[in-house]
Amino acid sequence: MYLLYGGPGNANLAPHAALQEAGLAEGSDYRFVKLDLKAGEHRKPDYLALNPHGVVPALVIEKDGKRQIVCEAAAILMHIADLYPASGLAPTPGSAERAAYYQWITYLTNTVQARFMNFYHADYFIDGAAGQAAVKAKADTALKEHFAHIDATLAKHGPYLLGEAFSAADLFLFMLTRWGRNLSRPARDFPQVGKHFERVLARPAVRRTLAIEGIS
Questions:
Q1: Which residues share a beta bridge with 70?
Q2: pTM surpassing 0.90?
Q3: Which of 10, 49, 65, 215 is deepest in the core (most CB within 10 A)?
Q4: Are residues 122 and 114 in contact, defined by beta-carbon separation less than 8 angstroms?
């Protein structure tokens, strides 16, 4: 049994979709533990015992009487892909495609996701309305540059990040594209990124994930 802790549409969305892509059923194979982030449930002692940083997601794996906790969305996503190789979420280890897969997930989490922290949580980095507005504006500019790069790559090598093959990296991009709806140029307005979003959105596993998390 897996327990995936998160909030609707937060960084848990990609690993949650990976569980669905792997063929796991919510309620029997895993449970999505929905936290009320606005109420601060991710900062309460019970959750901090799982993730001391007080952020989502966290995956609890209970097997053979033992308990393992995995944090960080990208790490959880890649671990699920490795646990269920038949899902096709990750290319063969050691292949050129596997290297590209690592590169994309690292870029999406270290570069793009990090800029979203600046965009949505400027108050984490600087005090004062003027300073926070400047941080958000800089992040907005950087994110549009990142999505332009992704768009150009999809135009040349798509329809997915690894070409013809869908992978867990596409779930991560889907999640970040959704986060980009509030940019001055929404991420889905980039032509190829928008098509990629619709393509991933059409997958039954992704639709089930959104329904479970309560996202219309």
A1: 59
A2: yes
A3: 10
A4: no
Containing H/E element for 191?
helix 191-201
Residue 61's beta-bridge partner residues? 2, 68
Per-residue pLDDT tens over the stretch 92-144: 999 999 999 999 999 999 999 999 999 999 999 999 999 999 999 999 999 99
The DSSP symbol for 187 reads G
Q: What whole-number distance in Å separates Cα of residue 47 and Cα of residue 146?
A: 33
| Residue tagged 């029997």 (tokens) | 28
Check pLDDT > 90 for residue 1. no
Where exactly does CATH 3.40.30.10 map onto the chain?
2-88
Could you tell me whether strands 2-6 and 30-34 are parallel, antiparallel, or unpaired per DSSP bridges?
A: parallel
Peptide bond preceding 186: is omega within 30 degrees of 0, i.e. cis? Answer: no
- CATH superfamily for domain 2-88: Glutaredoxin (3.40.30.10)
Domain with CATH 1.20.1050.10 in the chain: 96-204
